[in-house]
Design brief:
Layout (H helix, E strand, L loop, with lengths): L3 H8 L6 E6 L15 H10 L33 H12 L1 E6 L12 H20 L5 E6 L5 H11 L5 E7 L12 H9 L3 E5 L20 H7 L1 H13 L2 H4 L5 E4 L6 H15 L10 H8 E4 L9 H11 L5 E2 L21 H16 L2
Parallel strand pairs: 1-2, 2-3, 3-4, 4-5, 5-6, 6-7, 7-8
């Protein structure tokens, strides 16, 4: 006989199966990577005491930015136990598919490119063995050593044809905008293997990166976190204006954890300026807004929350973004979005597209 608690949990299941486009699998420690590294690099890590990737100097407050209940009972950070993730996310909410984005994109800011390439390769092998083989609903994102484009391409060539790998993941911050030709061999390899380019929150304000804002260095995590959308806007504008999508017409880019409310502003301003300055970028054969809608996708978490929820729907309509948005929970972080509560009430067709169909079409699920 079902208890009231069981009935309550059953009634909480979403009516629509969905795809979660930003879920973070975490290492318990760098020792998890030792089986996937050469003896040289294991010794290097142990003898040097290397134990963390570059990070911004802004403390995240209590609990290190994690959901405490997502920490395994036997110890380790939140998101490090695939069985607990399966219970708390896939089974709890009826998730149809999960795009694993990891936590290793800042490997691209290591000064030593050989170490970066070794760690990226090990992280990818660990993800395949530990996570993609654990549950068929998991899909993976390749970590890349972007400070060495040739090594990044080699990693795409090595694993890019695995059908469980659906994208690469890089940080929103970068040493130079992603549209520049330095990165074109990487995007060419992504297109050739049918991989999306996931640009994820992070990578600004590191010791080896650029300042967190165009005005310089803020004082608090609150400022850093809020200002991150500037990096996403800059990357979008760079990729469009440098002609990346004319050169690689099948390439798609996913902006992960960057928000969405700024999208109409960028589309309108870029289209307006292009009309007066199009002679500067003669390779653009269409208005920038068309490239944006055809080639970009944005995840919903952290969704903006205006005082009137209808205003968010108006922003989606103004941007023509119905086919661009994909749901993400950001499990297991402190600002996890519950799929039953995160989004405002939307028309049924828009709900279906955001929660499932846009992701299924992009990733071929």
């Amino acid at each position: 006989m079902a208890t009231s608690k069981t009935r309550e949990r059953a009634s909480a299941k979403p009516r629509l199966a969905f795809v979660d486009c930003d879920v973070h699998q975490q290492l318990r420690s760098f020792a998890d990577l030792h089986p996937y590294l050469s003896r040289y690099w294991v010794s290097y890590l142990e003898e040097s005491g290397f134990s963390a990737l570059p990070n911004a100097p802004y403390p995240k407050g209590a609990n290190r930015g994690e959901r405490v209940d997502a920490r395994p009972a036997g110890g380790g950070p939140a998101g490090s136990d695939p069985e607990l993730m399966r219970q708390q996310l896939l089974e709890e909410y009826g998730v149809e598919g999960v795009i694993l984005t990891g936590s290793f994109y800042n490997v691209a800011f290591l000064p030593n490119p050989d170490l970066a390439a070794a760690l990226a390769r090990a992280m990818n092998d660990w993800t395949v063995e530990r996570w993609l083989e654990f549950d068929p609903r998991f899909r993976g994102s390749l970590t890349l050593p972007l400070q060495d484009p040739a090594a990044a391409v080699a990693e795409i060539e090595r694993l890019g044809d695995d059908p469980r790998i659906v994208q690469v993941v890089v940080s929103a911050g970068s040493r130079m905008p992603y549209g520049q030709r330095y990165y074109h061999p990487v995007w060419e390899a992504c297109e050739a293997h049918g991989l999306a380019v996931g640009i994820h929150f992070g990578g600004i304000g590191l010791a080896t990166a650029n300042p967190p804002t165009s005005a310089g260095w803020p004082s608090f995590y609150l400022e850093w976190h809020t200002s991150m959308s500037q990096a996403f806007q800059a990357q979008m504008i760079s990729l469009v204006c440098e002609g990346v999508f004319e050169k690689f017409p099948k390439l798609h880019v996913v902006l992960i954890e960057g928000g969405i409310a700024w999208l109409p502003h960028v589309i309108w301003r870029l289209d307006k300026n292009w009309k007066g300055l199009r002679a500067e970028v003669p390779w653009l054969k269409r208005p920038p807004s068309e490239y944006i809608r055809d080639h970009f996708r944005l995840t919903t978490q952290p969704i903006e929350e205006p005082g009137d929820p209808k205003h968010l729907l108006q922003i989606i309509e103004m941007a023509g973004a119905e086919g661009m948005l994909m749901f993400a929970s950001d499990y297991p972080h402190w600002d996890f979005d519950n799929p039953l509560q995160a989004l405002p009430r939307m028309p049924e067709d828009l709900t279906r597209r955001v929660m499932r169909e846009n992701a299924r079409e992009l990733y071929g699920l």
